[in-house]
Amino acid sequence: MDIRARKVLIADDEPDILEILKYNLLKEGYQVVTAKDGDDAIEKAKMFNPDLIVLDIMMPKKNGVEVCEILRLLPAFKSTLILFLTALSDESTQIRGLETGADDYINKPISPKVFLSKISSLFRRLNKSEGKVIALNGLIIDPEKFIVQYNEKDISLAKKEFELLYLLASKPGRVFVRNEILSQVWGAEVIVGDRTIDVHIRKIRQKLGVDCITTVKGVGYKFEL
Predict the structure, then answer these.
(1) pTM score
(2) Helix crossing, 159-169 with 194-208: angle to 10°?
(3) SS3 at position 41
(4) CATH tag, 3-128
């Protein structure tokens, strides 16, 4: 997709940050809409249907994590890229944000160059993830339509759960080490703990109703169905 077709929503309660980020994105050819709080972000997202949503974690009315949780429950935003802006050094807050379905985060104060580089990286990862349909023993995973079916039953997965399942199912029987999973699904620059992977895999198993992901102790995970 041409960069000029990329739409970005930025939500932050600091007008100066909104202005400088919007200016730099417009200069690069993106379409940009801004929101001043969490409620405004949800409404603008529904109207604008962005390819990427940038959320400040500490916003009035609803914080960024709450907005992310709400949007991820809506089918239209299952695969939308979400980037957090955070002034917090609290690692647990960042991990919670990523577990709600965010793709990445960037710390304040924000360097426009780093910000643009991060966005370009997210879109590159999105393009790489658009692959072929996987069909295995009653399981169908369609990355373009963002559909998972098992024995003709629709399975609703969060974005990172979907990406994790697709990665593992792309090579049945192969063991993926934890670092490889983190790099492929969350990106090499994102720091998340082992617990994050474990939580996502547990949810995948529960939603599919079958233990198709085997834990290889001390190494990683493999897909077997």
Answers:
(1) 0.66
(2) 80
(3) helix
(4) 3.40.50.2300
